[in-house]
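Lab notebook: predicted structure, single chain.

Context: the supervisor wants predicted structures on file for every construct in the current expression panel, including those that have not yet been purified. This is the next one on the list. No modifications to the sequence; it matches the entry in the shared construct table.
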Amino acid sequence: MRLSLRTRTNLVFALALATLGAIGWVSFENGRLLARNDARVSHTHEVLERSARLNSHLAESVALRRGYLLFGDAKFAEAFSEASRSVSADLDELRRLTADNPEQLHRLGALQPLIQSRLSLLQQSIEAYRADPGNRAAQANYSDQGTGLREQISNQIAEFENVENSLLQERSASEAASLRLALRGFAILCLSVFIVLALAVWIVNRELTRRARAEEALARQERLLQSILDNISDAVIVADAAGKFVLFNPAALRLHGGPPFDAPLENWPEAFGLYRADRLTPIPASETPMARAIRGESIDGEEVFVQSHQQREGRWQLVSGRPLNDEQGRCHGGVLVVRDIDDRKRAEEERGRLIEELRQALASVKTLSGLLPICASCKKIRDDRGYWNQIESYIRDHSEAQFTHGLCPDCLIQLYPELRDRHGS
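Prediction complete. Output recorded below exactly as produced.
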């Protein structure tokens, strides 16, 4: 089954909209994935930054303890206390940031007592210096103990950061792969939308071109049909199911003396002056040719006498009609073809009148035929009863001929010889 232009266009644009929806969904999902990967990468960076701050605060606390031992300034001791609190805060923040990573939490759990021991030794060193500034041996002992703890702490922090760096690399690679995948999918979907829309434009343009050609062909056919209707001598009248005129040609205008005016079907006999062949009986509204055609009947060569305001003298018309049916056979109106036969009818009537007059004349004429017995001497004719009659009487009785009497030249000389010398022999 061939789909209509509207259906095909709707299908193509529905496909385009579905593709756009897929682009939106894929973009949304890729955005979520990218945001999640970016958050994980940012989280790893934050962990590494916090670890670096922890290492920095540890180094700062060691430097402040050394500054206090060198200068004995209480400000270094106060700064050391602040740095120690910062180290504890850094450890708490790292535990919070790595709460979803049990291995890193375990490493932080092992690192925390080492850091506390390191800070405790530094604090003891400051207190010992405050109590006995000249006791260098005690300070050397604290330094030796701190060196071992520092190496352990450095190793633990390095291991912790190596794991985070590995996670950072893995997550960065995943983020880059997701981005490439998102860009590839987006490009494919955009290309699909472009192809679908190009296909839609092609289909629409092809159908519009085909429709333009069909409309041009239809226009040519309409012009040809209109030319045929305009040039045929018979009147063509088309009405819809309600009896309203929808088409008529110039011959119909000439036949009716103007455009056929709209009138209800029940008023057609009076409006158009339609009479039967006797010229006296109006055709009932339900029996007019157009009403019968609209009902689905076919009319072939029916003679109608028309005598209306436009045709006061009256004229004979020959009417043929057909119903206008659609593909399902439903009638939507009727069409009439009307031919003016007034001249022919009047000629027929005149011929009939002449024939009747001739027939009556011939009926009144008496003719002689057959063998007539006539006397060779006196020229009398014997009738059917055996009587001999003068020829004049016989012809007068058997025909419409009348006689007048006169003399031919021979009889005139024979009866009146004296006239011979006067006329010469």
